[in-house]
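Please check the following for our workbook:

***
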Amino acid sequence: MRKYLLSLFVVLAAGCYAQGFQRPDYETIQKVARTEAYDQLLTRYQALDTTLTLNELQTLYYGSIFVGKSSFNGLDKEVKDLLEDKRKTNEAAEAMDRHLDKYPFDLQALVYRTVPAGRNNDTALVRNLWEKAELIATTIVSTGDGQSDSTGFHVVSVSDEYALMNFFFKVEHGNQYITASRCDKFDIAVNGHEASLYFDIQALLAWENRVFSGKDIDKPFTFTYDTSVWSKADQSNMASMTVNKKLVLPEITEKTTAEEYDAYKPKVIECMEWLLAHDPGTKNDMEKMTNLEAQQFLIKWCAGVDGCMFSLEREFFSYKMIELGGYFLGGWAAYFVKTGDNDSVNGHIAGIDAVIECYNRYPKTLKKDKKKILAFKKMQEEGTLRQYVIDNIGK
């Protein structure tokens, strides 16, 4: 099976890791990303400087996550909808240009932007966009071979995974799982053969956790890619842990339709029931993985569903135990599914209620957040929680 996968990557990767792939040096990259040197590299990238080295390209792409230039989920659905209407070609182009000004390394957006450029017969722009996309794709595939948990392709955006598979590897992809070593694993088909493809999302998850926890995002990150530090259970269960028999969740991608989001509503309830039924600090590896999968599903569903704007406030969403952010979000999402009420105050209250319920069930696990949660619980019991939420939303 390895030979089938290698056939996919040889064109892009031959010039990058002929002498072995090169994982990103995140510790060094995050230091450079906040200096003038990074801005100078960005200027050279925008000018399509062909002398950019692999180290410099990795600094640009992976450094984007530290300076707000990484688009975690790619283009908004509204922009993609504009692209479908040829009468709105120029409007779509302008919207994507604004997106690329903010997120210049978004692989999906670079490829999609070629569509209105092609419609307007702007061949020079089409060529420019594809050359940039190829630079980013080549940078990503330089970081691994995509064939195992420890050698996955490093990405800073979920949409980049799909852009690589759809536009460059051109493989059919099915189920997606998050593995014990923080990789996205996809079931794929290559020349009629079943295979797996791995994307390392440790940097992406670390950033999400930092944002959700409310910690100082400027504090240096620490990353570990040495498989020897994973627990024995993780190492022994690499293959088996990616399949969960108790909580089966559908895949949410940029192609998920509004009808599908609506059909997934029962899964939102199921995810929340699972989270409340399992200790967020569980030592069981399978439960850890399922908790993570449930929270990832809820995040993606809330980001894409129509009818409710999940405008989260740090005062209510951030906890020392970062997993509680997922419980808060799940509580709000489950409330919206059950009632259809998209009121932000009621949503925040439902999220707080879920956090309180989690504390009621697992007080020892949540002891670091005891003071904050008990304050919410007191307001809940005294009937003052609603006014507190109203007073603090937007602060």
User: Anything to note?
Assistant: The chain has a mean pLDDT of 79.
